[in-house]
Amino acid sequence: MPYSAPVPSRPVQAETAAARAVGLSKIYGHGETQVVALDNVSVDFGRGRFTAIMGPSGSGKSTLMHCVSGLDTFSSGSARIGETELGSLKDKQLTRLRRDKIGFVFQAFNLLPTLTALENITLPMDIAGRTADTQWLDTVVNMLGLSGRLKHRPSELSGGQQQRVAVARALASSPEIMFGDEPTGNLDSRSSTELLGFLRASVRELGQTVVMVTHDPVAASYADRVIFLADGRIVDEMFRPTADGVLNLMKSFDTKSRVS
User: Fold this and answer.
1) How far apart are CA 250 and CA 236, in angstroms?
2) Predicted TM-score of the model (pTM)
3) Which residue intervals of 38-144 are DSSP H helices?
4) Which of 9, 113, 168, 197 is the most buried (most CB within 10 A)?
5) Digit-coded pLDDT (tens) for 223-251
6) CB count in 10 Å sphere of residue 126
7) Left, alpha or beta for 4 (phi > 0: left; psi -120 to 50: alpha)?
8) Which residues are CB-neighbours of 125 under 8 A, at least 6 positions away?
9) Which of 196, 186, 231, 257 shows the shortest CA–CA distance to 64?
10) Using only C-alpha atoms, what is the Rg of the chain?
11) Euclidean distance between CA atoms 28 and 1, whole angstroms
């Protein structure tokens, strides 16, 4: 899809962290039923970069995303969005932070069926009593190829189009960071490729920061960096990943797990 890049609305500062975890742990239960979902994890997510989080089921990848994004509490350590320490915030402050500084895209599209695509995109800002930046909104809508679909309701859109609306909703408020939890999980291969291309473009063209949890090596290959979790710990990372490189590294983890 042809796309003419606009001037980014904010400078890209890749050397700084948009989000950070230091010694982050998340423990469920007590005694014999205790489960350590995150075990002393420290990681930075660079501003203006696309980071993928991978690992086998139960490795803690979604828990890490939920704790760093303020969707879940953590047991110990520190989690920050920019310079804001999440552990010190009360519920209303966390809600405001998520609304104003974070965008979310999940496997489920989470669109309201009675609203048009445009109304779904602007809904979070409407609830917050904020007016959308028309120029930025137009840029996002055009990048995602939704200009001709804004008056359509979700039932009139394909799965790929619905997920693009969800991405537009996440980007519409120009968040400091956008988190995606298996955002291609309900899409066919063509729609997945399109969506990943849009996420890549949002980083390259718009200076957006994206953190995506995925199990798919092809999806991870769109990222600048992949971090790998196992048993609640970061066990490796890869820069400028390829699908084959990610797959081979994941296979090596499986082999080590069987040996141990």
Assistant:
1) 10
2) 0.86
3) 61-68, 91-101, 117-127, 134-143
4) 168
5) 999 999 999 999 999 999 999 999 998 88
6) 13
7) beta
8) 131, 132, 172, 173
9) 231
10) 18
11) 46
